[in-house]
Amino acid sequence: QVHRGSFRVVNLVRQYKMSKLNSDTLREGLTLLLAKSKEKNRKFTETVELQIGLKQYDPQKDKRFNGTVKLPTIPRPKLKICMLGDAKHCEEAQGVGIDHMDVEALKKLNKNKKLIKKLAKKYQQFLASESVIKQIPRLLGPGLNKAGKFPTLCQHTESLEGKVNDIKSQVKFQLKKVLCLAVAVGNVEMTERELFVNVQMSVNFLVSLLKKNWQNVKTLYLKTTMGPPFRLY
Known about the structure:
Layout: E1 2-3, H1 12-18, H2 23-39, E2 47-54, E3 66-70, E4 81-84, H3 87-96, E5 99-101, H4 103-107, H5 113-122, E6 125-129, H6 130-133, H7 136-140, H8 143-146, E7 152-154, H9 160-169, E8 170-174, E9 180-187, H10 192-209, E10 217-224, E11 230-231
Parallel strand pairs: 4-5, 4-6, 6-7
Antiparallel strand pairs: 1-3, 2-9, 2-10, 3-8, 10-11
Helix pairs in contact: 2-10
């Protein structure tokens, strides 16, 4: 399930066939990363990150790509999401175990830039009810937008739990001012097979966004939060 970015998304099936990502290298890397992770008992679940170095790209002149792909296995189950909701959505949010704020709570921030910045920092994603999303510029100013965290609209006709899981499954590739990107593609609690599929899908989707596809890829690394990097390409 792919959302179109600013570049036309080409057929992912074709990308798989043309992929320069070596399956054996990827398996070897995942085996190594998971083994290293088990050597030390961490008090948290390590994230598996895909680190990408690009080449022959000029962020000043070339069109900056922006695309999102939904992965089969949720890479970040503990992603912090907050629902800016009406009464019904706030009640539902409580049921699915995510934080929530109603309009009154947002009014109490009193457009204070420091408090809004703190709110934006506390959560990685925001959802909002239709009646609330319209009021956000008036209640909070441009703070969430500036942080790149303007809420995703949530309708009453869709399942909030489904929406939350969709967001947790998504990986966003966005070129900014530098030629390196890093995205969470999984975690060490996942099986090697689940990680394999997530990484392959993420890499092939990213390549589909690039102007010259694989010719723009300089390096690909996989890394757990605390572990050493492993070069895939």
